[in-house]
Amino acid sequence: MSERTRRSTADVSDAVCEAVREELAELGYQGLTMVGVARRAGTSRRALYLRWSNKDQMIYDSIAPFVPTAVSFTSSGDLRTDLIEYLPRVSQFEGTLGRAARSVVAESYRDPDSLAELRERLMTASLSGLRQLLLEAIARGEANPSALDPEILMVISAVSFHQLCLGSEPISEETAARFVDRVLLSIVQSETYARDGVSEAI
């Protein structure tokens, strides 16, 4: 009996998911194929299609379990310090997973219908920590309540996702500090963006 035959379903599934991440990291989304994944995982293409009908579903199952449902964040008590710490943390996917995640995020923006569920999972985790630190800043009087507007939250999180798509490393503390000082503080502390009913967004 061959090694391939002896492997359990769980072992094959783990091997496939690892192969998907490695293929994404090396070849990108466009270069990933069912044939390539099967070859790297030591299984057959038929076995892949028995479980996944397309490569997007296979990619989701290979990456989503490693994405937290929320980015935990403990406030320092100072909004500027919190934002500077937040930006690098969200973009900090390292190694093979980091390269695979960058490929996925980049593809999801190139083609909005592709991998939308995985992109949404990444965004949800990102926004949960950001929303919490802004809520605490609002309570301290450091930020305007309009900082919780969806458009403003998206602007802030987009910085990290831009780096996740294009950068080989997480955002540096120096880069985060410049962006916070030149852009973000003026947005979240300004009354220009205030509107009635903002409490509904909290």
From TrEMBL:
Domain HTH tetR-type: from-to ranges: 10-70
Keywords in alphabetical order? DNA-binding, Transcription, Transcription regulation
Q: Which InterPro entries match?
A: Homeodomain-like_sf, HTH-type_TetR-like_transc_reg, HTH_TetR, Tet_transcr_reg_TetR-rel_C_sf, TetR_C
The organism sits in which domain of life? Bacteria
| UniProt-listed PROSITE patterns | HTH_TETR_2
Which Pfam family, any one, appears in the UniProt record? TetR_C_11
Keyword Transcription regulation present in the record's keywords: the answer is yes
Q: Which residues bind DNA?
A: 33-52
- PANTHER family the UniProt entry points to: HTH-TYPE TRANSCRIPTIONAL REGULATOR RUTR (PTHR30055), TETR-FAMILY TRANSCRIPTIONAL REGULATOR (PTHR30055:SF148)
Task: Write the protein's name.
Answer: TetR/AcrR family transcriptional regulator
Give the species. Streptantibioticus silvisoli
